[in-house]
Design goal:
single chain; mainly alpha; 2 domains; Dimeric_xanthone_biosynth; Hemerythrin-like domain-containing protein
């Protein structure tokens, strides 16, 4: 974990995560709509991808709920508390939409019916709209507060617990997903504390793993 020249915590790795979430959820409705009615095999592939995204988002938000909002509410001036409370409220709204999306996906996964497919795609569009609004507000208001109010160790705990929640067999792919549109300088910062062999090999393995994953889900090595 690094600090900026002003001594504040460098929160840019959150932007890398947000970029990946925005991209994958933006593409998700079209992926669902492209599945032909009755093609249950393809529906399962896309459903597994959506399960992965939803779990990734859930763990990301759970970490903020436990490790970020309480600290900020305790440390920011009273007039800024409503901003943090808005973030909490948006998390609840996104959680509700995630549950609706999960229910629609469960119905569609089994038979790949056209009506269930369309309902799922519409639910994903609502999820994407709420998510992009939330991420933009978080980047504008919360990351500057976090950079001033949290210690490097506290901010690092968010990333560490987020990584611990990821199965080991998915970590290379996720890193490749983050690398795909992530700021190279920030990616290098994220690797900086790793041993030299890991700094050399993880980017290679990540690119390959994400290319295989994207080919299976999107039909091309890149989404």
């Amino acid at each position: 974990m690094t600090t900026t020249e002003s001594g504040q915590v460098d929160t840019r790795e959150m932007l890398v995560i947000h970029t990946a979430l925005r991209r994958e959820y933006r593409l998700a409705p079209a992926l669902v709509r492209a599945v032909a009615p009755g093609d249950a095999a393809r529906a399962r592939v896309i459903s597994e991808h959506l399960d992965f995204l939803n779990n990734m988002l859930h763990h990301h938000h759970s970490g903020e709920d436990r490790l970020l909002w309480p600290k900020l509410l305790d440390r920011v001036p009273a007039e800024l508390a409503p901003i943090v409370q808005l973030m909490e409220q948006q998390h609840h709204q996104i959680h509700d939409t995630l549950e609706q999306t999960g229910a629609a996906m469960a119905r569609w996964r089994e038979h790949a019916a056209a009506a269930d497919r369309d309902q799922l795609a519409e639910s994903l569009e609502r999820l994407y709209a709420g998510l992009t609004e939330h991420l933009a507000a978080e980047e504008e208001h919360i990351l500057p507060l976090a950079s001033r109010c949290l210690t490097p160790a506290e901010w690092g705990q968010l990333g560490e617990e987020g990584m611990e929640s990821v199965p080991k067999n998915q970590r290379a792919m996720i890193f490749g997903m983050l690398m795909y549109e992530g700021d190279p300088q920030v990616i290098a910062m994220m690797l900086a504390q790793a041993p030299l062999p890991a700094r050399l090999i993880v980017p290679v393995l990540g690119r390959r793993a994400f290319a295989r994953y994207a080919r299976r889900v999107h039909g091309t090595p890149t989404p």
